[in-house]
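Re-running the complex after MR caught last week's input typo. The corrected sequence lines follow. Everything else is unchanged.
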Amino acid sequence: MGAKQENGDPEDILPPLEQELSHDLDMKVKKYLRGEGADLEVLKDKKLKGQLYTRENLYGTSAKTAAKTEKWLLPSAGGYLEAEGIEKTWRIKQDTIGREVDISSAKNQYDIVLPDFGPYTLDFTSSGRYMAAAGRKGHLAVVDMKNMSLIKEIQVRETVRDVVFLHNEMFFAVAQKKYPYIYNRDGVELHCLKEHGAVTRLQFLKNHFLLASINKYGQLRYQDVTMGEMIGNFRTGLGRTDVMQANPFNGVVALGHSGGTVSMWKPTSAVPLVKMLCHPGPITAMAFHPDGHLMATSGKERKIKIWDVRKFEVLQTIRGHAKTLDFSQKGLLAAGTGSFVQIFGDFSGSRNYSRYMGHSIVKGYQIRKVAFRPYEDVLGIGHSMGWSSILIPGSGEPNFDTWLANPFETTKQRREKEIHSLLDKLPPETIMLDPSKIGTVKSGKKKEKPTKKEMEADLETAVEAAKGTAMKKKTKGRNKPSKIAVKKKEIVERAKKPFLDQQMVEEEKVAKKKRKIGEEIALPTALQRFARQKATA
Amino acid sequence: MQSHKMIEKKRKSRDGKKHDRPQKFARKSKFSKKRGKIEDDKRRTGPRLPQSLRIELDRINPNDQSGSEEDEEGINDDVYEYEEGVPEEESKKNRRFDSVENYEYELPKDFKDENVDSDDDDDDFDGGENKIAHHKGKKGHLDQLDDDVEDEDDERHLRMLQGITGMPSQAFQDRKKTKVVSEGYPESEYNPTRDVLDGDGRIAIEDLLESIQGKPGYRELRKITRQVEKKGKVLQAPLPKEDRDRLERSAAYEQSKKDITRWEPLVKRNREAPTIMFDKDTDSGFSTIGAIASEFEPRTEFEKKMSSLVNDDNVMAAHKEDGSRLLELNKISLEDYISSRNHIAKMRSLLFRHEVKMKRVKKIKSKTYHRLLKKDRLKGSVGIPMDAEEAKELAMKQEFKRAEERMTLRHKNQSKWAQRIVKRGIDTQDEGTRAAMAEQLHQHALLTRKMNSMKDSSSSDDSSDEEDSENSDGSDEDKAPKLLAKAREKTRRVLEEDDGVPDSGVLSLPFMKRALKKRKEAADEEGRLAIQEFESSLKELEDTDEAKITKTGTVIEPKNKIRSSSYSSDSEAELEAQEDIDIGLGRTDDMQNNINVNSVSLYVDADIPQDSVLKNSELVKDLGPKMTYEVSILQSNTWKKMSSSRNEVDTNGKRSQKVVEPATHNQDIEFEGVGEDSDADSEGQMLDGILSSEHKSSYKLPSQAELIREAFAGDDVQEEFNKDKEEIMNLENPEPEKPAQLPGWGQWTRVQKKKGLPSWVLEEHENAKRKREEALRKRKDAHLKHVIISEKLDKKAEKLLTGTLPYPFTSKEVFEQSIRMPIGPEFNPATAVRALNRPEVVKKQGLIIKPIRYEDVDSHERGGEERRKSGQKQKIKRSKGRVKAVVAKS
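Corrected-run output:
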C-alpha cells in the first residue's frame, strides 16, 4: 500500500527522463514479483491477513532491490546489430563484424579444420568456458575456450554419435558405437554404461543429475550419475530417433519422432506427458528456449515451427529447413542446414521471430550441430570439416552470475560448487510440466484406485454408521430385542456388502492372473515335449 | 369478704397448681428428651447393678431417692435406673406421627387471669410479706423439688466434665449460674413476646442511659445522643450479602479491565510482529562454571552439611598437609625415572610391533593361512597352563578326536592316498611322501595310545608299545587280524576263568545267587557270540587281503565312467575345439603323449560297456603311469616349454577369435545398414584399426531405405495420431459397455422382446456415456487436436503436493499466491533474504527472557518495519510503578 502511494505521488513532479526510468524500474519490479499478490480483502482471518500483508511487503522490497540491482549494478548490457537505412542485418558479413569489434571478441572468429574425423558435434559447459567436440569417427576433444587451449584429445576408434558434458567440465559422456561411455577431462574412461545400449543422443539434466539417453531401439533411459541408479527405462514405441532435447526450465525431455510427433517425458512416468503432432513429416531438429516457454521444431517438409509449450500452440511458422536448431541465452534461434546457418531474432519482445543474421561456410561442408556459447556472443558450428566459431551480436547473456555459472572459476570454486549442486540435487519426481505446481494443493481428482488401507477404513466407517442407525420404535409385539438385534445385523451386513463385493472382484482378478501364469508354466502333457528344454549341464 | 377472698385464692392457687403440674411434667419430659441421648449412651455403656442389689441399696439409703410421692422423674434420673426410652412419637425422630410441637393446652389470648390481679391486690393488701412466704411455702415445695432434680443433674454433668477435662469443678460452676430460664414454648413469630404485642416494648437509648445517670461521662453521652436524635438520620439496614458481593465484584472487574486494556496495544504489537526480537539486555552475566559455582549457596540440610565439611579448616589443613607429604613421596631418582621410561618405551614399542603385526595378519585374506594360524594357536595353548574350564574343554576336544580316530581310523592308512602309496610301495616314494606317511601313522599311534592309557591304566605299557611298534613298522592290514585275535583271546580267557561265587554276604543268598547265575550265563552267551564275530571278521580280513586289488579297480570304475560320459556328452563342436587345441599342442613334440591319452580315453569310453573288471584294472594301471608322466613333466624343465606353447595357443585363440570377429562385425554392420547407413560407412573405413588418411566426403546421397522411409513417413501421420489419441482417451476414460440382452434372460415371452431393454439399463448406459463425455470435455487437450496430454496420475510426484490446505488458509488461490515467491538466497538479493527468512523469535543464546513489561505503545501503528523504526526513535517509557498485579477485590 505504502509503495503504491510513494510511486503515485512524486511521479507527476518527476522530469520525463526519470519518469521513464521509474517506469522501467516498475516493469522490472513486476518481473521480479512473479505475479500478482492475492487479494487479501477476501480473507476473514485477521491474523493471516496481517501475516500475508507483511509478507507481501517483504516480497515487494525484495523485488524492488532486485530491480534496482539489475538496473544499476549489472556491468554490461547486451548489444545487437542495428541496420541503417536500407541495410539489412542479415547482409552483414562476419568479416565486417570482425573489423568492428575488439580484439578479444575478434578472436572468437575462427575455423578449425579437421578433415579426417567426420562431422563434429559440440557441447558447451553451462559457463561457456569449455567445449567438447566429438568427430563422428572417434575424435574427442575438450577445449578451453577462454585461452583457446586444447585440454585433452583422444581417439576412441569408434563411431561417436553424441557428446555431452556432465555437471562440470571434469566429466563428459560420449555416445559411442555400442554403448555410451563417461570420460573424465584427462580422457580416462570412467564408466561404460552398457545398459543404455547403442545410444543415439544424450542429454544431461544438471539440476537432477540425470543422464538421459535414447538408443537405437527407441528406448529412453534415465540414469542418476551420482549414485549410478537407473531411474527410468521406457520404451517409446515410436521408433528410432536422434532428435532429443531437454527443456532447461523443467527438465522434461522431448523426443522428435519420424511420425512428426514430439513426445515429452519425465523419469517417473512410463507414458509420455505430452504427445503432439508438430509436423506432417519426420522431425529433424528441436530446441528449447532457456525460459522453457518456447520450443522450435523443424520438419522434413522444410518448415520451422515455434511453439508455445505452455499452450501447445504454434506461434510462428518459418519456411526453411534445419538439421540442427539452437536457442541462445537471449533467445536467438540458430538453424543450420547444409552449409548455411541462419539466425532468427525477436527484438520486439512479441515472440515474432524474423531473420537476423546468416552465415554460410564453405560449400560442401555439412553442418551437423550449431550451439550458442553461453555468456558470449558466439555461435559454434560443428561441421564435416571440423568446427567454426562466428560472432552473433546479442546472443549471449552479458552478465554472468558467479553463483550460477562462472567462466573464471577456480579449482576450489569448482569443487565447492560441485558439492553445493549435489546438495541441491532435485529428486527425479520434481520433473513435471509445470514445476511451479510443487507445493500446491492436489487437484480434487480422485485417485484411480483406493488402497487397501483406505478401503478398510471406508468399510469400518460404513459399518460404524450402520451400527449407529436409530431403530424405529415399533408396536408392542414387534419391538422385541431379539428382532432388533437381527435387524441391526442385517443393516450392518448390507453396509458391508459393496465393499466385500469389490474385494471379491479384486481377488478374482488376482487369482485369474495367477492362473494364467500357472497355465503358461504347466503345459498339457501332450505338448510338454515341445516345450523348450533347459540346457542340462 | 376477706375470708371469701382467701378461699377463692386458695381455690385458684390450687387451680394454678393444677395448671402447673402438667406444665412441669411437660418440661421435664422435654428436658429428658434433650438429654436423652447422652444419658442413654451413659446408661448403655456403664455398669449396671442387678435388681436385687438395687433394692438393697434403696433400703439402706432411702434419702437418695427424693422420697416425694409424685416423683417419677427422680427415679428416671438415677444413674443406675433403667429408663424407658422415649416413645417414638415423642422423640420426633422423623416427625412421622405428628408435627405438633406444643402439646399443652393453650389459653386463649384474651384470657384474663383474675388471680394475677388478685395477687397484686393481695400484695397491696397486706404488705405481701407473708403472702410471699405463703406463696413460697406453697410454691417452694415444688420449686425445691424441681431444683433438687436439676441440681442433681447439673452435679452429674459437672462431674462428668471434671472427669473428662480434669479441671476443678469450680471452673464450670459459674456456667451453671447463668441458667437461662426458657419460655414455656419457643419464641417465634407465632408466639411473640408480650412486649412485641404491646408495641411499646422497644428499648430506647434513654432507658439505657437512665441506669448510668450520675456516673461520670454520662453527660457527654447524653449530648451525643441528643445530637444524633436531632439530626434524625436513619441508618439504612445493610444490603444482603449476595448483592453486596456482586457489586463489589463488578467494581473490581471494571478496575481490572481498565488495568488490562492498557496492555492491549502492547500485546497486539507483539502478536502482529512477524518476528519478536529479544536482543536487549543481552548481557547474561558470567557464564563460566566457576562463576556459577561461586554463586552457589547451600540451602538444604545436606548441602549445608556438605559445605560445612568442605570448608572446614581442619579438613583443609589436613588436605594441604597430606598433599605436601604426598608430593614428597612423589620424588623419584633420575635413574629410576630413566629406567622406568626405558621400560615403558620398550613395552610400547613391543606393543606397537605386535599391533602392526596383528594388523598385517588380520589383513591377510587367505582362509588357509588363518586356519593354519588357528591350529598353531591351539597347539601353542596346550603347553600353557590354563584355567580349569579351558582345560576341560581341551580335554573334551582331545577325547572327541580320539573317539573320532577310533571310529574312522583316518590316520591308519585308510585314505585312498595312503592306500595307493602303500600299494605302490613306500620305498619307491620320495622323501616327502614317506615323511607324511610316517607322520600320519605317528598321529594314529598317539591317539590310540592315549586312548589306552585313558581307558585302563592297568593295561601293560609294553603291550601298547608292542602295538606301537607293530603299527609303526607294519601296515594296518597285518595289524587288524592281530588285534582281533587278541580280542578273541581275551574274551576266551574271561569266559574260562570262572570267578567264584562269594560264600558269604548278601550275594550268598539263594535268590541272589540265582540272579547272578542268570546274568553270568547271559554274559557268557555274549562272549561266545563276540568270539564268533571275531573269528568271522578275521576270516573276512584274510579274504579282503586277497581281493584287494580287484576291489580298488571296481572302486575306480565309476570315476572313469563319469569322465568318459563327460567326453561322450560333449558336443561335436567342443570335441573339435579340443582337437584344435590338441593340434595346437601337437606342434610341440613333447605333448604327443597327451593326445595318446586322450585317444585312449576316447577308446575306453567306446569300450566300456563290454569291458570287464580286469580291463578296468588295466586302465587303472594305465592311469598310474600317466600321472607319473605328468609329474615328471613338472619336475623336468619342460614346464616352460609347455607354458610357452600355452601362450602360443592363447595367442592363436585370440587370433582365431579375431578372425571370427570381423565376420560378426560384418553381420552387425549389415544390420546397422538398415537403420543408418552412415554408421556402416565409417566403420567400414575404420575396420583395420588405422584410419584411412585420404578423406572421402562424408556427405553422400541418402540410401534407398532412408529415402523410402522418408517418403512414406508423412503419409497418414494425422490419421495415425488421431487414432492414437482416441486410444489413449479410451484407455483413460473407458467407454461404457453397450447394454446387451443376455440370451435367455427376461425373454420367455414376446413382451420383453417388444419392449426392448429395461429402462434402467438404458438409463445407466446413458449416464455413463454422459459422464465420459464430460470427462473428455474436461481434458486439457479437449480442444487441441494435435496434442495428447496424459492425465495419468504420477504417484511419486503426488507427494510433492499437499493434500489439504494448510491451517490458516481458507482459499486455495490465496495459498498458492502466497507461495509463488521463492524465498531462498538464490532468488533474492542478499539484503532481502534475511528479512524473508527471519524466524518468528530471534533470541540470543543464553538470554533469559523476562516477563513482559509495560511500555507505552501507539496503538495506531501498523506494519513491522515501521514499528521497529519508530521504536528506535521514540524513547520507550517504562513505568515500573504503574505496573500492578491485578487483584480482584472480592
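None of the earlier attempt is carried over here. The longest strand of chain A covers residues 149-155. Residues 481-521 of chain A form the longest helix (41 residues).
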